[in-house]
Design goal:
The chain is an alpha/beta fold. The chain contains 18 helices and 20 strands. The protein starts with a strand and ends with a helix.
Length: 556
């Protein structure tokens, strides 16, 4: 069984993201399961960043703490990440020599061979490829693809730089490096959470996105803009988040499936717009990429601190949908579900992601495109004689048309309104309109997916988690089960409304989440009247991993 973990470290500007992505892509194309995540500071130059990769021959998209291999492109980063190296781990270093240290002068090779130290990171790619025993031809193909836009000369120099790094490291590998990664017959897609959300939106028929750039959600609009001709989605960088959500609501009112995306601070500016969508019953999808707050907080790190904020966003009472996908495949399908349900029930839908899911790369074997079924929920204007946009109905769902679709007038207003959409001060009608909108909430509850149960049978202790922590939590359960600890897990990805679900009183429950106050536990107490007293929380800006979960479970 293969399970190789490595940390590529260096300062911002040294190209460690290029090193990591090329290696991850090569391993993925060779048929291996790859998971990679980044830890980076909010600065353009300097600091100490890392790109962490896990390569295995079985599906395991979860973070690790201790690494088999550490490659450092500067001394400061080496000192920071050295404590995370396993006792029998290998160091690739430019300056050190010694037992289990492979000395590769990355900068020296780049300057001597190419008279340009910028090639040092590609020398490092080749050196890492040699250490893990990856096929150099496979590596060259990915390098060629990565630099193809820069011309043949740049491509050939990068291939030569990687080959020199490979040759130099291979000399020192004998007796130290035992890994061999021959190509195997397995096909994977290597994709980030943001890319999966973008593709899922396109598959769901989204045709407009407006957003203001804000880490970690920016990758969605940049991906859609880059591939606009193929994906057929018009993108607009708005002047701020208020404009972005109002553009999306306007486009949706005009009959186009629309979305926006931001992080906590930008989402805060969108809250009035979310209420506008609630009152006008206009479907819109909002991606909220969580990061540590309050205020700017740690803008390049991860957290699950906005769950209750998203659920309660918007003044007044109106139905809303909140999903939190667990990985890229789930994100692809969740955003498609969100578009369909938002249109069916004429409500805003929030997709909760975070920096960990947004920026990490996962291998996915199959996106199951056949499961994406898009349906239009627009009314047929030819069957309507007297059109009332907000017609009172026992389901709460009124017939939806868009302006210019037919001869019918489509009227709406942010004030309370009558069935035709005209402003009203009739207090009895106001009461009936509130009830009409809230009726949709109970119907929607029946469409919400149950949480995923994992190793529940015979479990005495049960972890309850949500969103991007799933793979780490499930791996922790597996590790504990190996030691005969009776543990299971329940994982939520659809959080508002919550489905009907029964918690068993004989189980001992723990919430596991990346925030300080146990927000999922508070939500469960409100919705299910269950008082979860045990909480495993993480709020240092790093993603949950199985070692952290196990340590907190066993020792508090």
């Amino acid at each position: 069984m293969i399970d190789i973990s490595m940390i590529i470290s260096g300062s911002a500007g040294q190209g460690i993201q290029t090193v990591g992505y090329i290696l991850a892509k090569t391993a993925s194309k060779a048929g291996y399961n790859v998971f990679s995540w980044q830890e980076y500071e909010s600065r353009i130059r300097g600091g100490s960043n890392s790109y962490r990769i896990r390569i295995s021959d079985y599906p395991i998209n979860a973070p690790f703490v201790k690494a088999d291999i550490l490659l450092s492109l500067d001394k400061k980063s080496n000192e920071k990440y050295l404590p995370l190296l396993k006792e029998d781990g290998i160091i690739l270093d430019e300056h050190q020599t010694g037992k289990r240290i492979i000395n590769v002068p990355f900068v020296g090779i780049a300057q001597q061979t190419f008279r340009n130290k910028l090639f040092a990171n590609v020398v490092a790619v080749g050196a890492l490829g040699a250490v893990i025993g990856i096929d150099p031809d496979s590596l060259n193909k990915v390098i060629s693809s990565q630099f193809s836009r820069k011309g043949e000369e740049i491509v050939s120099k990068n291939i030569a730089a990687a080959a020199e790094g490979y040759r130099t490291a291979r000399k020192s590998c004998e007796g130290i490096c035992s890994w061999i990664l021959p190509k195997i017959e397995q096909q994977y897609y290597l994709i980030s959470g943001n890319e999966a959300l973008a593709l899922g939106a396109a598959a769901a028929g989204c045709r407009f996105m407006a957003a203001y750039p804000m880490t970690p959600s920016t990758g969605i609009i940049t991906y859609l803009s880059k591939h606009k001709d193929r994906l057929k989605i018009f993108t607009e960088q708005a002047e701020d988040e208020i404009a972005a959500i109002n553009m999306a609501i306007g486009a949706s009112y005009a009959g186009v499936r629309s979305m926006t995306a931001s992080s906590g601070g930008g989402f805060a500016l969108m809250v009035e717009g979310i209420s506008l969508a609630g009152m006008t019953e206009t479907p819109v999808v909002i991606v909220l990429g969580q990061r540590p707050g309050p205020a700017t907080g740690l803008p390049t790190r991860t957290e699950q601190g906005d769950l209750l904020f998203a659920i309660n966003a918007g003044h007044g009472e109106f139905p809303k949908l909140v999903f939190a996908p667990s990985d890229p495949k789930d994100a692809f399908h969740k955003i498609a579900r969100a578009f369909n349900l938002a249109e069916k029930y004429q409500i805003p839908a929030v997709i909760l992601t975070d920096q960990h899911l947004a920026d990490s790369y996962f291998t996915v074997d199959n996106f199951e495109l056949d499961n994406i079924v898009n349906k239009s929920y627009l009314a047929d204007p030819d069957t309507i004689e007297n059109y009332r946009r907000y017609q009172l109905d026992h389901t709460g769902i009124s017939p939806a048309l868009y302006p210019g679709q037919s001869q019918h007038l489509v009227c709406c207003d942010s004030d309370e309104h009558d069935e035709y959409g005209h402003i009203t001060e009739d207090l009895e009608l106001r009461k009936r309109m509130v009830e009409k909108r809230l009726k949709k909430f109970e119907l929607l509850r029946h469409e919400i997916m149950l949480p995923e149960e994992y190793q529940i049978s015979g479990a005495e202790d049960v972890f309850i988690s949500w969103g991007s922590s799933k793979n780490a939590v499930f791996e922790a359960v597996d590790k504990l089960r190996e030691n005969k600890t009776k543990v299971g897990a329940i994982h939520f990805t659809e959080l508002m409304p919550l489905p009907e679900y029964e918690f068993l009183p004989e189980k001992n429950y723990y919430t596991v989440e990346s925030n300080a106050t146990g927000q999922l536990g508070k939500l469960l107490r409100i919705e299910y009247s269950i008082n979860v007293k045990n909480h495993i929380t993480c709020y240092n800006g790093l993603p949950l991993d199985q070692e952290y979960i196990i340590e907190r479970f066993l020792h508090g």
